[in-house]
Design goal:
- The protein is mostly helical and 96 residues long.
- 90% of the residues lie in helices and 0% in strands.
- Helix 1 (2-35) runs antiparallel to helix 2.
- The longest helix is centred in the first third of the chain and has 34 residues, at 2-35.
- The radius of gyration is 16 Å and the shape is elongated.
Length: 96
C-alpha cells in the first residue's frame, strides 16, 4: 500500500510540474516578444528554443496523461538539457 501511495504522489507531482513548465514557457514567449520588438537573429533563436521546449513539454505531458511516466520523466530531463545548453549556445554565438 505504501508503494502505491508513493507512486501516486510522483504521478501527481510530474503532472503538476509539467503544467507549470508549460505556463512558464508561454509566459517566456510573451516576454521575448516584448523584449525583442525588432526582428533580429537572437530573438529568432530564442523563439526557436522556446518552441522546441514547448513541443517537448507537450510530448511529455501526453505521455503523462497516457500514464507512461517513465518516458515522460525522460523527456522532461531532456527538456532541462536542451533548455540549458540551448540558451548557453545562443548567448555564446550572439555575444562573442
Amino acid at each position: 500500500m505504501k508503494r502505491k501511495d508513493q507512486n501516486d504522489i510522483r504521478e501527481r507531482f510530474l503532472r503538476w510540474l509539467l503544467f507549470s513548465i508549460l505556463v512558464i514557457l508561454i509566459l517566456e514567449m510573451v516576454l521575448i516578444s516584448n523584449l525583442y520588438t525588432t526582428i533580429n537573429n537572437e530573438g529568432t533563436a530564442y523563439y526557436f528554443l522556446i518552441v522546441l521546449l514547448l513541443i517537448l513539454c507537450a510530448i511529455s505531458l501526453y505521455f503523462t496523461l497516457r500514464k507512461n511516466y517513465m518516458i515522460a520523466s525522460y523527456v522532461t530531463m531532456l527538456m532541462t538539457i536542451v533548455g540549458t545548453w540551448g540558451a548557453v549556445i545562443i548567448e555564446y554565438s550572439y555575444k562573442v
